[in-house]
């Protein structure tokens, strides 16, 4: 009887009721680890796919495509994944960001040429990625991609090798509309 009375007294004066302890442990486990989920593919639209990923900073949605043709004087085995992205988030201020991953490190301070139907736009580079000059350029590039049939990205690697990547714009317009609905 004395042990039971002691246990009851301990429970009575405990700052956290003991029945909440298991719930506390589960919540602690859930929030102790950073969310590192892989992007989830939402839908395919011909040559473009739309994804979402929840991060600590918020939801990121993006659409992406891979080149149909890769040209240049380089060893393909030395080149990583190559993609173009249109991304939203995290946050409402980061919308319609156009970027390219080259699959190699760009030549320092080089520019990349983004060409749609013979109209060229320079992109700036940082390591293995290229971006437009800002939101106004992003919007112009997106309008051109909706109207165009193919996109050619020309860059120069840190080994001074020129690359020419050709992307299809088939499915771009539908993918963009879906992206805007998935991540308003």
TrEMBL record:
Pfam families tied to this protein: IalB
InterPro entries named among the record's database cross-references: IalB_sf, Invasion_prot_B
Entry-linked Gene3D superfamilies: Invasion associated locus B (IalB) protein
Protein's name in the database: Uncharacterized protein
UniProt organism field: uncultured alpha proteobacterium EB000_37G09
């Amino acid at each position: 009887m004395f042990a039971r009375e002691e246990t009851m007294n301990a429970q009575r004066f405990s700052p956290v009721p003991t029945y909440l302890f298991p719930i506390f442990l589960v919540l602690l486990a859930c929030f102790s680890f950073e969310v590192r989920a892989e992007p989830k593919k939402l839908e395919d639209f011909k040559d473009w796919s739309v994804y979402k990923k929840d991060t600590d900073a918020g939801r990121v949605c993006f659409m992406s495509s891979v080149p149909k043709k890769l040209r240049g004087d380089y060893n393909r085995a030395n080149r990583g994944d190559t993609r173009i992205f249109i991304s939203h988030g995290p946050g409402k201020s980061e919308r319609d960001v156009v970027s390219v991953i080259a699959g190699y490190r760009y030549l320092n301070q080089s520019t990349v040429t983004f060409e749609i139907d013979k109209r060229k736009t320079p992109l700036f580079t940082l390591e293995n990625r290229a971006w437009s000059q800002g939101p106004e350029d992003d919007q112009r590039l997106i309008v051109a991609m909706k109207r165009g049939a193919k996109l050619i990205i020309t860059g120069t690697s840190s080994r001074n090798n020129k690359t020419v990547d050709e992307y299809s714009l088939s499915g771009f317009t539908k993918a963009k509309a879906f992206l805007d609905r998935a991540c308003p």
